[in-house]
Write a structure and sequence with these properties.
Layout: H1 13-25, E1 28-33, H2 39-54, E2 58-63, E3 81-83, H3 86-95, E4 98-102, H4 113-119, E5 123-128, E6 139-142, H5 149-160, H6 166-179, H7 190-201, H8 206-214, H9 219-230, E7 233-235, E8 240-245, H10 247-252, H11 265-268, E9 275-281, E10 287-293, H12 299-305, E11 309-310, E12 314-319, H13 323-349
Helix pairs in contact: 1-5, 2-5, 2-6, 5-6, 6-7
Bound molecules: manganese (II) ion (MN).
């Protein structure tokens, strides 16, 4: 099968052109992304919707959950991304000839919209870069070696001959900057920077995106972060760092747990730490865990143990138990993964 040259990616050229053809002729498109959406999913939705509208298609972005506060600067208006309302949206979804799912290839991560997608007779297209996808789509463009779904979309838009206007380039740039860790992760290649260059040329402004993403935080959020840092714990001989956010802390700082800042990167920054964990006690009686790694251990393996998913260096999952018990079980699992990685390293060097 012919492969495109893009980013050393394994996107089959035929799949890309088939998806491009479907999008070039579509009249009515429903676009969505995963629950608890992020800069990659939201950025891709906006870029694709705007590019398709410019070609005359009727497009609606309908998600199960709200757009996180730091990403709202990307919206042209409050209704550009709709939060699913069956009374208002079911008709549109049923009549859409194309459904595009971005930054996720697993049905359950669409929340209430999973059933809608499964029932839909539309041509189903998925653009993604996660390891786990299910055979739910007519066209699946997924490459886990890419930083962001935005890279897949950038490639697809080029094949479609879509115009990169500033309003398309800005959300696409945001998707790339967020999912590449500000152009710092291992999956950044020369192509990543060429894409960024093309987007800046097309009108994306890096400083504007940075200020909006990172420098509009609330005092409560920064103080919560301070308290978490104050109580960071080192485990497994300093190789695992963990932070805890109790439901009491969330209430005290009036922070919506769905809008938690990315605190987990701070314990990760400690020298010698290979895995960083943030445990957040959700009100509904379960613990949400964010895991980050530096490469020695794949935190996606840790997430899989608990039924979650993600990427080798960034993953997440939930555990239905108390904060203490979740901490104990997850730390045990980390210890096992570290032992396994030590054994592996020894075998390789032997
Ligand atoms: Mn992503």
């Amino acid at each position: 099968m012919a492969e495109t040259n893009f980013n050393g990616a394994r996107l089959a050229a035929e799949s890309v052109s088939a998806a491009a053809r479907a999008l070039q002729t579509t009249r009515r498109v429903w676009i969505t992304t995963h629950i608890k959406s992020d800069g990659d999913g939201i950025g891709c939705e906006l870029a694709l919707a705007r590019a398709l509208r410019a070609r005359g298609a009727e497009v609606r972005i309908i998600n199960d959950t709200v757009v996180p506060h730091p990403l709202r600067f990307l919206l042209a208006g409050p209704d550009e991304i709709l939060i699913y309302d069956p009374a208002r949206d079911d008709r549109f979804i049923q009549q859409a000839d194309t459904a595009v799912v971005l930054d996720v290839g697993l049905g359950y991560r669409l929340g209430r919209l999973e059933a809608k997608l499964r029932q839909s007779a539309a041509v189903k297209i998925c653009l993604d870069h996660h390891l786990d996808t299910e055979p739910l789509f007519d066209h699946l463009l997924c490459d886990p070696e890419l930083n962001a779904t935005g890279e897949v979309l950038f490639h697809l838009l080029k094949v479609m001959g879509a115009e990169l206007t500033p309003s398309v380039a800005t959300p696409l740039y945001t998707s790339l900057v967020v999912d590449s860790g500000n152009f710092s992760y291992e999956r950044c290649r020369p192509e990543t920077f060429r894409m960024a260059g093309a987007l800046v040329e097309a009108g994306a402004r890096p400083y504007y995106v940075h200020v909006n993403l990172h420098w509009r935080r609330s005092l409560a959020e920064v103080k919560l972060e301070g308290e978490v840092i104050d109580n960071v714990e080192l485990c497994s001989d300093g190789r695992v760092a963990c932070g805890l956010v109790s439901s009491e802390m969330l209430r005290r700082y009036t922070i919506d747990p769905m809008e938690m800042p990315d605190i987990v990167n701070i314990p990760l920054s400690l020298e010698g730490v290979e895995i960083a964990l943030l445990f957040v006690e959700m009100d509904s009686g379960y613990i949400k865990v964010s895991a980050r790694g530096k490469g020695r251990v794949k935190v996606s393996d840790l997430a899989h143990v608990f039924g979650g998913g993600g990427h080798p260096l960034a993953a997440g999952f939930s555990v239905r138990t108390t904060l203490e018990e979740a901490r104990r079980r997850v730390l045990n699992e980390c210890r096992a993964l570290l032992v396994a990685s030590d054994l592996e390293a020894r075998t390789i060097s032997a």
